[in-house]
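Structure request: Thiamine pyrimidine synthase, Plastoroseomonas hellenica.
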Amino acid sequence: MTRPGFGDLLAVLALLITALLAPARSEAQTALRFAWDWAPQGYHAIWALAEERGLFRDGGLRVQMDRGYGSGDTIAKVASGAYDVGFADVNSLVQFNARTPERRVIAVMVVFDRNPAAVVTLRRTGIRTPADLRGRNLGAPEGESSRLLFPAFARAAGIDAGTIRWTSMTASLREAMLASGQVEGITGLQMSAVISLRAAGVRAEDIVVLPYADAGLDLYGHGVVASASFAERNPEALRSFIRATLGGLRAALADPQAGMAAMRRRESLFDEALELQRFTMTRDVAIMTDGVRQNGFGTMAPDRMQRLVAVNAEVNQVANPPAAESLYTNDFLPPVAERMP
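Returned structure:
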């Protein structure tokens, strides 16, 4: 029987040191609770890849990710401390912070540089342009952000919002009611409405989309949000989370199919083929804009944020809108050079 040599003893010692240090590294990780905006969809692959590829771990984070139930619900949960960070529509911050300034929530990174809100209809209705919407019956859940923004879209498009008849329904019934002819159009996020209609068997060539942005409504969409108090107490954790998000975003853009596979491993019922279409549309409509190509991912510009506050304050009849600078900060973003596409 051979006696262990010096090299063998060094190897055993290295293993023991690794075993002893592993718990310490685990204990050093900061636990973060992260709420999405909705049920798992293609664009959530940003964070599935950040997790799978160790970007959270490398940033000293241990992240719990949960589905959301709408931007308003996510923002409320972040404000209450039930979640540390969330992914939500930045527009929803205007009304929330006006009502509860003591629980202020801020945007720390924008992901949808172009707001994907739209009116979606079917070719059989004869609606081709915003002007064709006069007197029509549109459907959306009450309080849904795209419906709330519709008056601003109508004004930008030169139509009278007062001529529209509205039918309210739950979000789960919206596309089905359009497909069955119970309403002539719906409002919602373009990629959500279009892909849900495709999943219901509607042909792509039969779907008509009227994006709000095409009428000149230049607003941001969804981004990463956190309570102002959490950001103040945990700046490094927030910076690490944003760096991991940027890494996951780059990974998803570089290999969308890998992103969908990562989501499927998280969610067994996730439809990779369908959600790949949704992610591709999200990329083209909301993420990879001219502004992002010029200024990098994540940036929020003062003039656009001021416009966002003004539009949302008007359509939601907010008498005491918060100052634009109180709604967001770019301070947690890495340097521009690290954020260019």
